[in-house]
Write a structure and sequence with these properties.
This protein has about 140 residues and is α+β, with helices and mostly antiparallel strands. It is built from 3 helices and 7 strands, in the order E-H-E-E-E-H-E-E-E-H. The strands form 2 sheets. Strands 1, 2, 3, 4 and 5 form a 5-stranded antiparallel sheet that branches. The chain has a two-stranded antiparallel ribbon with strand order 6-7. The structure holds adenosine-5'-triphosphate and calcium ion (CA) (2 copies).
């Protein structure tokens, strides 16, 4: 049985033309199968965290109405990251595009390579702001 759910996906870029990577990512997310882009938050610049020296990020979050399961969505996100030239080096290192599943309204996952809600769902201030913004955008429909 397919479940129609709402997924919140975080976009981040800190290499190259960051605005362009976010715009291309939004377009790619909107054209995934069985998925509709409902709303996009404003874009916010944040300082990088973690052990690696790197430039600031542009961040954004989108709400997607989708019939893709968390695992199917993760596969699509990896495909889009790769299409946008992401080279996986070290964890938390600089990247042209990072796409994370922040949470689903109804579904969860708890596997070695996929945890939903994302463990940092309530820890990153910009994620909290973006989720609040999306909630109010969606509520207006
Ligand atoms: P963080 O997840 O803390 O923001 P990161 O985005 O830099 O760190 P990555 O190197 O992009 O981490 O991802 C490492 C792995 O995390 C991915 O290959 C994926 O399998 C796994 N992962 C687990 N849960 C999720 C999730 N909710 N969304 C995206 N990836 C996830
Ligand atoms: Ca991330
Ligand atoms: Ca990631």
């Amino acid at each position: 049985m397919t479940v129609r759910d709402i997924a919140y996906v975080a976009l981040g870029s800190n290499l190259g033309d960051r605005d362009v990577y976010l715009a291309r990512a939004r377009r790619a997310l909107a054209s995934m199968p069985r998925t509709r882009l409902m709303a996009a938050s404003s874009i916010e610049e944040t300082e990088p965290f973690g052990p690696v020296e790197q430039g600031p990020y542009l961040n954004q979050m989108v709400a997607l109405e989708t019939e893709l399961s968390p695992r199917e969505l993760l596969g699509e996100l990896h495909r889009i990251e790769q299409a946008e030239g992401r080279v996986r080096t070290e964890r938390w290192g600089p990247r042209t595009l990072d796409l994370d599943i922040v949470r689903y309204e109804q579904q969860t996952a708890d596997d070695a390579d996929l945890i939903v809600p994302h463990p940092a769902v309530n820890e990153r201030d910009f994620w909290r702001r973006e989720q609040a913004e999306l909630r109010s955008l969606i509520a207006r429909h």
